[in-house]
């Protein structure tokens, strides 16, 4: 027969056993720090997708997840400050959204896992050395697009276009890569590139106006300065009947005629799933960088009318979403 003392010891052991899942959950609390170079619809969607993937995997803010998010408001110096602050906080993963923020974070740590997102060319940005697993603390998801398909869309929207204008920030690595590739690609398609630099967000409108009369269409990549100030570009397009074709589908909602692009929310979900793998123990250097999946065609018929374009029925029929 057990003594009363043995009985209480057994009950105490049982209580501790029952309490252990709670203790384990506290011990397993993870920390994720996310940063973006600027706030605009596409990058905000990436952030929201990352959060959704974390929650789907069971990481809940206020329970077993510490989450912090900061944007650099378009300032690369601020991006560096945020990166250093996050490194000092020692989170389990840093999610860096857009090329300038990813470059700042990767330059600041060689040990804390980094998952990049919304980066067009992680090789050119020197985040990783190849599309194979890096063996470093860095992995992520690229939003790289096939530029030949982008220019085919330009031809469908403006069939007689021979001069393609592009406003971009020469200080943003992903934009420079696109410009360099277009310089080579467009002549093979019977077109030429006309460039206009916009080093700051406030320069976007003036850069667009400098293209008026020199181009048949303006193409915009995922340049963060341009996307942040897209309304100023739209005003120029509407006022001068200069068609705008984008690579970011959110820009169609803001006044571009068309875009063949990725869903940035799903892009964020994809990056978030990579972050989850790291939180669950995989080394970032063992996870090969990924690219986003299928592209969707978005059209804006009211923008087409404002910018002097008649969309073909074939193009309309192939759209995933039409905005009137």
TrEMBL record:
Key word Protein biosynthesis present: no
Gene3D superfamilies: 3.40.50.2300
Domain of life according to the entry: Bacteria
Signal sequence coordinates: 1-27
UniProt key word tRNA-binding: no
Pfam families cross-referenced by the UniProt entry: ABC_sub_bind
Family annotation (InterPro entries): ABC_transpt-TYRBP-like, Peripla_BP_I
Keywords (A to Z) from UniProt: Signal
Listed name of the protein: ABC transporter substrate-binding protein
Species of provenance: Halopseudomonas formosensis
